[in-house]
Specification:
With about 190 residues, the protein is mostly beta strands. It contains 4 helices and 15 strands. A 9-stranded mixed beta sheet has the order 8-9-12-7-13-6-5-10-11. Strands 2-1-3 form a 3-stranded antiparallel beta sheet, with no helix packed on it. The longest helix has 13 residues. The protein is elongated, with a radius of gyration of 30 Å.
Length: about 190
C-alpha cells in the first residue's frame, strides 16, 4: 500500500501541465497553425515550429449588466402572451414569430383611440386561409421598455376575447427574442 502511494506521489510530482507549451508552425501554403502537441505537426514542418510558450490565462470578464427588457413565463405548449401599450392602453398580444405583421383586433384599436375604419383594405393570408382586413397606421407600440413605430398594423378580429391581437416580426425585429424552454421563459431585449 505504501509503495503504491509513493509511486502515485512520484507520478504526480513529475507530471507537467497539459498545455505547458504552444507551438506555431507555417505550412507551405502560408497558413499559420498552432498546436500544443509537437507530434501533431507534420514532420516536414516540425523543425521550423516555434515554441511560443504556454497560453496566458485570460481573466474572467466582468459580469455584464442585465439589460432592461421583458421576461415572460410560459408553459410548454401554451401560447406566449406579451403585454404592450398603444396610446397608453394595455393590450395582450400573442407572440407569433411566424407572423410577418402585428395584428390588433378592431375593438382593441378602438379602445386605444385608433379608428380601424380609417385604414386601407388589404387581404391577409395565413395557415387557415385568407381574409379581408384593414391596414392601420399607429404612432408607436410600447413593448418591453421599447417604443416601436410609427407602424402599420393589421386590424382583424381575433378568435379569442382574451387576446387583443398578435405580435409579429415587424415589431419583434426590434428585439432579441430568446426562448428558454428549460427555465420556462421568453426574454425580449430591445436591440
Amino acid at each position: 500500500m505504501r509503495r503504491t502511494a509513493l509511486v502515485a506521489v512520484l507520478v504526480l510530482a513529475t507530471a507537467t501541465p497539459a498545455a505547458a507549451a504552444l507551438f506555431r508552425w507555417i505550412a507551405a501554403d502560408g497558413a499559420t497553425h498552432y498546436t500544443s502537441d509537437l507530434d501533431s505537426i507534420p514532420e516536414a514542418y516540425r523543425a521550423g515550429a516555434v515554441d511560443i510558450g504556454a497560453p496566458a490565462a485570460r481573466p474572467a470578464p466582468p459580469a455584464a449588466p442585465i439589460p432592461s427588457g421583458l421576461v415572460v413565463p410560459f408553459t410548454g405548449g401554451a401560447p406566449v402572451v406579451v403585454e404592450a401599450r398603444l396610446n397608453g392602453v394595455l393590450l395582450r398580444l400573442l407572440l407569433d414569430t411566424g407572423a410577418e405583421r402585428t395584428v390588433i383586433a378592431p375593438a382593441a384599436l378602438a379602445r386605444t383611440g385608433v379608428d380601424p375604419a380609417l385604414g386601407t383594405p388589404v387581404r391577409i393570408s395565413g395557415v387557415t386561409g385568407s381574409a379581408a382586413a384593414t391596414l392601420v397606421a399607429v404612432p408607436l407600440l410600447e413593448v418591453a421598455g421599447a417604443r416601436v413605430g410609427p407602424l402599420s398594423v393589421i386590424a382583424h378580429a381575433m378568435p379569442s376575447d382574451s387576446l387583443d391581437g398578435l405580435l409579429g416580426r415587424d415589431v419583434l425585429d426590434a428585439f432579441t427574442v430568446t426562448f428558454d424552454a428549460a427555465a420556462g421563459r421568453v426574454t425580449l431585449l430591445p436591440r
